[in-house]
Write a structure and sequence with these properties.
The complex is a heterodimer of chains A (518) and B (144).
Chain A (H helix, E strand, L loop, with lengths): L14 E4 L3 H13 L3 E7 L6 H5 L2 E6 L10 H11 L3 E3 L9 H9 L3 E2 L4 H8 L1 H11 L14 H11 L3 E5 L9 E3 L5 H16 L4 E5 L5 E9 L5 E13 L2 E7 L2 H5 L3 H15 L4 E9 L5 E7 L6 H8 L3 H9 L16 E8 L1 E2 L5 E2 L2 E2 L2 E3 L6 E5 L6 E2 L6 E9 L2 H14 L1 E3 L7 H6 L2 H5 L6 H7 L12 H20 L4 H4 L8 H9 L2
Parallel strand pairs in A: 1-2, 1-4, 2-3, 4-5
Antiparallel strand pairs in A: 6-7, 6-8, 9-10, 9-12, 10-11, 11-14, 12-13, 14-21, 15-16, 17-20, 18-22, 19-21
Chain B lengths: L3 E4 L2 E2 L7 E6 L2 E6 L2 E8 L2 E4 L2 E8 L17 E4 L4 E6 L6 E2 L4 E7 L2 E6 L4 E6 L6 E2 L4 E5 L1
Antiparallel strand pairs in B: 1-2, 1-7, 3-4, 4-5, 5-6, 6-7, 8-15, 9-11, 9-14, 10-13, 11-12, 13-15
The chains are: A alpha+beta (518), B mainly beta (144).
Chain lengths: 518, 144
Amino acid sequence: MPNTSRYNRTRVFQKVLVANRGEIALRVIRTLREMGITSVAVYSDADRASLHVRKADEAAHLGPSPSSESYLRIDKIIAAAQRHGAQAIHPGYGFLSENADFAQACEDAGIVFIGPSARSIRLMGSKTGARQVAKDGGAPIVPGTEQGLTSPDEALEFARSAGFPVMLKAVAGGGGKGMRRVDREEDLRSLFESASSEAARSFGDGRVYVEKLIENARHIEIQVFGDHHGNMVHLGERECSVQRRHQKVIEESPSPLAARIPGLRERMGEAAIKAARAAGYFNAGTVEFLADNDGNFYFLEMNTRLQVEHPVTEMVTGLDLVRMQLDVAAGGVLPIRQEDVVLRGAAIECRIYAEDPANNFFPSPGRISQLAEPSGPGVRLDSGVFEGWTVPMEYDPMLAKLITWAGNREHAIDRMVRALGEYHVGGIRANLALFPMILNSPGFRAGDLDTGFLDRFLKSGIDFHPSPPDGHAEIAVLVCGAAILGCSLLSAGNNPTSQRVSGTSSNWLTIGRAEALR
Amino acid sequence: MKPTILINGAPVTPLRDADHAPIADGLHSVLANGTSYEVRVNGSTITVNGHAFETEIQDPRRWSRRSASHGSQGRASINSPMPGKVVRILVELHQEVEAGQGIVVVEAMKMQNELKSPKPGKVVEIRVSENDGVAAGAVLVIIQ
């Protein structure tokens, strides 16, 4: 067969199972469709009517709604892949995407896991292990101890040489558990004990290590991509400093810091490749760094999967990372060299969640009764929902990712604000109102970001219910009156469609004013 | 008796001259003084060009869109703001609580949410147990 592309596929998949749900399952299915590969969705009871099931070519039921009985069941997913004859599995992000046992189970079943090897996932899965790998590979790490400490004295010794503040962290940590900031020598012993006992309670492992605390740090990560033939490139950086409770809220590429400091991207990219190579990495991965405003940066961890925020990299590089993942997993040679990677313009992403920012970010699952989605120049919406869909309470509250691209950062932000204005989610609460306030704040516009930015912004007393401009309340009362009369007419047995003729000015409003509102 | 419409709790005089086009269920276009407004109606919430208004219709005979009563004075209920599962009850019956004190923890969408008392008082009723599934709006605890 003649090879017409620069891809040198040794194998081509005819059918791929997508072991995920929501927007990412749909996003992968779209690329599969573009490549002419048959897609197999999997679903739980709650997701029977979901978009990813409806848009896939085939679908397999996994079980009851809780993830532990469906999307986390390795045995059921492998069985579904075998039943449908899928040659490969794309794990998406979350769920089983960074589970080495799942990657191994795929391999054992003769199914290609679209991602790195089980060994790479294991190497990068432990925080101290990943630090060691990165350090051995020659990537800068936050000064600290690589191993768990046996006593607070060891932590004290380190803190005296490195200087306060320091951070105590659980070796088995995650989600902020077992973490303590220590500012003063006299606090260290008690904080060590509390971090250790919290770690023991949370993870069954009380080991704690210590790191220098990098103040006002930015979260900047590098997308890396490797094939099975020893080639590896980086695709530039993403800045994800706008976070709440260690969860990313807004991401962008390029980073305003990398745009400001010449050579930073190249240095970080090289360090990321070193860390990934040290883990024998292939396929898509992300190396996360903390960076300060002088351009010093330190390895934080590696995510051995496609990231939620990968679209901003796709927008500025013009690449389809899922397509590349499939090609590389099929044994193909990486289609690009480092010098082919050119970042063009700026892209920004907002994570749209079913939560109420005006009410302590309470989750808001339920039925979406109205949905208007943004479009137009430079807008990409990766959504997993539709009007009429009931957002299940069992899973992550993310509804969609809204991405805008433009020639420069200022323009991309303007576009995002415009697109958010076109976006409407009714029936449940969504966090849409949060973003324009952040995007229009002077700090964000100036690119002065760090991981504490959003917490400070939220504490600064922002008003989620600003007074509306003049004249809007008068419009509201008018439509309310019309709605009343419309309803009463309907209940009197009139034909509803005749009342709702699109595009014609109706006179029942006038009647409504005269009859109901005087 | 004519119904009165309250917007964010206050009566508002409607416009005299406006051109209105119903577009779809819950979606309206209004042109007034040359300005174009997109208006969405969702239950008692009306959104005009992205600005939300709470409406209340006062007409004892036909309409009660929103019941404004939050229980009698001195009595407050802790309601679940979303469907979920009660993971912890932080108070006991007859316990004195302060305003802002955590009362119940409800889990939904992998997040645990602590519901707080809106006022100081005494726990007079606990209507749920740990691990109960609850609907949105369900009354969990009553403080008096």
